[in-house]
Amino acid sequence: MTDQPVWATEPRHVARREAARQSNGEFGVQPRSEASVDLFGSAHPVAGAASTLPQGSYLFPPIFRDVEQIVAFAEQVEVPDDVLSRIREAYVETFDEAIETVHEIWDRVPRERWEAVYPAPADPSGPARAAWEQQRAEARRAFISHMQDRLRQRPTVMHRLDTRAVAKATFIVRAAHYLSGDPALSGSESARTMLVAQEHLVETEEGVRSCWDVYVENGVRCYGHEVTNPDNYSERARAERQAALIRGDLADLHDRLDQRIKAAQDDVNDTVIQTGQVVIASG
Question: Where are the beta strands (DSSP E) in 102-179?
Answer without folding.
Answer: none
